[in-house]
Amino acid sequence: MRLDVKALVSVLIIVLVTLSSTRVLDDYVDDYTNESIRNAALTYASARGINALVSVLQSTQVEAGVIVTGSMTIGEVLDPLNDMIERFSSVMMWVLASLAAQKLLLLLASHVLFLYLVAVLGVVSLLLIYFGRSGAQSLVFRCFLVVVFVRFALGLAVALNSAADILFLDQQLRENDQEMGQFQSNIMRLDTTAATDSDDIRDSVIDFWRSLSLAELDQKISRGIENFINLVAIYLLKTILFPLGFFYMAIFVIRSLWRIDLQPAAVA
Fold first, then answer.
1. Coil, helix or strand at residue 73
2. 3-state secondary structure 175-238
3. Which residue, 33, 38, 162, 192, shows the most beta carbons closer than 10 Å to its own?
């Protein structure tokens, strides 16, 4: 290997080891992931709260026969919304599982043992570049590059996901979360300041739904379903589809790194 190539590769190794030891992006990535888990958990809790209210209304119509029109009951009208919430809850469980897995992988990639592994491979690569055989040089250097890529790849993926949030998804996600909160307080007509007893709250909800026409009910329920569909699309995109796309890209990069051979570069 020529001296200029050795110097270039040595500088690259030293820079990568230094960046790894300084924990670039680690704090930001950790804060972003925690915030994403917290927001997803709050969204899931709100959905289950709405589901509980819908279940109360459906059980009430069975017990008391609350009629919305001459041929339809509250339970029948709310069935599509209840089904949508159940499916949304299932999706949010996968979203939370995906975020938890990302959090675990980020913890592993930023663990001190992983940092030591990067440093050790970097030092061994430097020694082999100047004193080792060409075959060993390439093998250890490949391992070093792959480990460094894994070290930074997860943080880079989260940073790119955060950029996509800021540019495209964040505003829509906040708006849909706010609409879901309003759905629980306004559309379901919960006035906790006027009625603190559970029976009074239930009666208030029932009276509100009985006062609506079928067209008004369909409109409110359709808006609620549309809101849940939007949230499903956003969360699937940012927590499952984006990570899967990056995973396949990472496989391609790792395969490319493993083909690197220092000896041909020296011959060239």
1. strand
2. HHHHHHHHHHHHHCCCCCCCCCCHHHHHHHHHHHHHCCCHHHHHHHHHHHHHHHHHHHHHHHHH
3. 33
Q: What sign does the CA torsion over 234, 238, 244, 249 have? A: positive
Distance CA 205, CA 203 (A): 5
Whether the CA torsion 165, 168, 170, 172 is positive or negative: it is: negative
Separation between Cα atoms, residue 75 and residue 59, nearest integer Å = 8
pLDDT at 62: 43
Both tokens assigned to 190:
């919960």
The DSSP secondary-structure symbol of 12 reads H
Specify the pLDDT at position 200.
59
Mean pLDDT, rounded, of the chain: 76
165: Cβ contacts below 8 Å, ≥ 6 apart: 173, 238
Q: How many folded domains does the chain comprise? A: 1
Choose between 23 and 139: higher pLDDT.
139
Per the structure, the complete domain to which residue 212 belongs is given by 3-267
Q: Which of 82, 92, 60 is nearest to 73 (CA)?
A: 60
The Cα–Cα gap between 114 and 107 comes to 10
Residues in the chain: 268
> Quick count: other Cβ atoms within 10 Å of Cβ 238?
23
Q: What is the pLDDT of residues 41-94, one digit of tens each?
A: 888 888 887 777 777 666 654 444 444 444 456 666 677 878 888 888 888 888
CA distance 229 to 232: 5
User: Residue 23 region, left (φ>0) first, then alpha (ψ -120 to 50), else beta?
Assistant: left
Question: For the chain, what percent of residues have pLDDT higher than 70?
Answer: 74
pLDDT score at 120: 92
Q: pTM for this one?
A: 0.72
Assess whether pLDDT exceeds 70 at residue 213: no
